[in-house]
Write a structure and sequence with these properties.
mainly alpha, binds zinc ion, 2 strands, two-stranded antiparallel ribbon, 392 residues
Length: 392
């Protein structure tokens, strides 16, 4: 049942010489932030650091994420460029690269093709190890035609570190070396890790209100640090929304600011989740249903179920060996030839439903998921039983 996923691309966690450049850049920014100990920290530098943290967290959330990656609202080309420039001043690579990678994150969420999955690659790789992984650095721009059609965005993306250099120099000019080391570099480090926690923490710690087929979670602390991006399970459930805090008490200042900008006519057409989405009644794609069903089926031991099926079959007095040979003949003609026979040892639909209700958030798709999980188990058990009987 996991064969399809097994054939997908996976990310090599090994360190290679080619990773050195990306690693030097990333740790170079951290080391430069430590330069604050040498330069000292002034009041101006603290003000710049705090301001640049919040302004750029907003630029990442409202720009890179909600606008460029998800097109959750509309704006004009000038404001789009300003947001892209500010977001790129965080030295998190180009805006088109970022959006492309992020669309892949949603498309393959928590499968081996998702480089940001703690489930697949561990916490630290999902947080920052991917940065110096060459496979992860490469992006496929086929999934971002709505961005590559703007020449000014392509230019910005091609000059990915230029905005960071411009901002760094401006901080230096404005507040001297403390402005550069503490104001610019230290706030850049903070923005790095706040952004990365959405990939790492928000796929490990927190609660799942909605069934999304991945590990995305709502995390209030992360929402405070990232101006609303921590409502990550909400976001995976309905990613087209400009609003990520779905309840009135879910702090989402990025959305509040976007509402303010809407009043000023700077942004418009903010997309919000419809009622049935808020109520958790959204239907799931068959891909997600398959993914969740595989998760449910994987909690059963196929060997044990096969033993139970065999024991119950033999109890009925029917010739098990004959049935097994017939299965093997069907299988020779291809796996899809497996007839959907009822196997007496399979868990019942009720049993599967009870387990699913404990494992997953409430969803109207639960009956479909139970059916699919049962199909998967039936197939696995039939395949297992059809194998030649080992000599005992
Ligand atoms: Zn995610
Ligand atoms: Zn997203």
């Amino acid at each position: 049942m996991a064969t399809e996923i097994a054939s997908q691309e996976t990310y090599d966690r090994k360190f290679t010489p080619a990773s050195v450049g990306a690693m030097l850049g990333f740790f170079g920014v951290h080391i430069a932030a430590l330069g604050s100990f040498w330069s000292g920290v002034t009041v101006e530098a603290v003000i710049i650091c705090v301001a640049l943290y919040w302004i750029r967290i907003f630029a990442i959330g409202a720009g890179y994420h909600r606008l460029f990656a998800h097109r959750a609202y509309k704006t004009g080309r000038v404001f789009q460029f300003i947001l892209g420039f500010m977001a790129q001043s965080t030295a998190q690579s180009g805006l088109i690269w970022w959006a492309s990678k992020h669309r892949d994150h949603h498309r393959y969420s928590d499968t081996p093709k998702d480089m940001h999955s703690p489930r697949q690659y561990g916490f630290w790789f999902s947080h920052m190890g991917w940065i110096w992984n060459n496979q992860a650095q490469e992006a496929n721009y086929d999934n971002v035609p709505d961005l590559t059609k703007y020449p000014e965005l392509v230019w910005l993306d091609n000059n990915r570190f230029m905005p960071a250099i411009v901002l760094g120099l401006a901080c230096w000019a404005l507040a001297g070396l403390p402005g550069l080391f503490f104001g610019f570099f230290f706030s850049t480090v903070l923005v790095y890790h706040a952004t990365f926690t959405i990939n790492s923490m928000c796929h490990v710690f927190g609660s799942q209100r909605y069934l999304t087929g991945d590990d995305s979670r709502n995390n209030a602390a992360m929402a405070v640090l990232t101006m609303g991006e921590g409502w990550h399970n909400n976001h995976h459930y309905f990613m087209a929304s400009a609003r990520q805090g779905f309840k009135w008490y879910e702090w989402d200042p990025t959305f509040y600011l976007l509402k303010g900008l809407e009043k000023l006519g700077i942004v418009w057409d903010l997309r919000e989740p419809p009622e049935h989405v808020l109520a958790g009644e959204r239907g799931l794609s068959s891909e997600i249903k398959d993914r969740v069903a595989a998760q449910l089926a994987a909690t059963f031991n196929v060997e044990k179920l096969s033993e139970r099926t065999r024991a119950r079959w033999e109890g009925t007095g029917e010739a098990f060996d004959e049935w097994r040979h017939r299965m093997a003949e069907h299988l020779e003609r291809g796996r899809e030839q497996l007839p959907h026979v009822e196997l007496p040892g399979l868990p019942s639909a009720d049993e599967l439903r009870t387990k699913a209700q404990k494992m997953f958030a409430r969803s109207p798709a639960i009956d479909d998921i139970v059916l699919r999980a049962r199909e998967l188990l039936r197939e696995s058990v039939a395949l297992h039983l059809a194998q030649p009987v080992p000599v005992r």
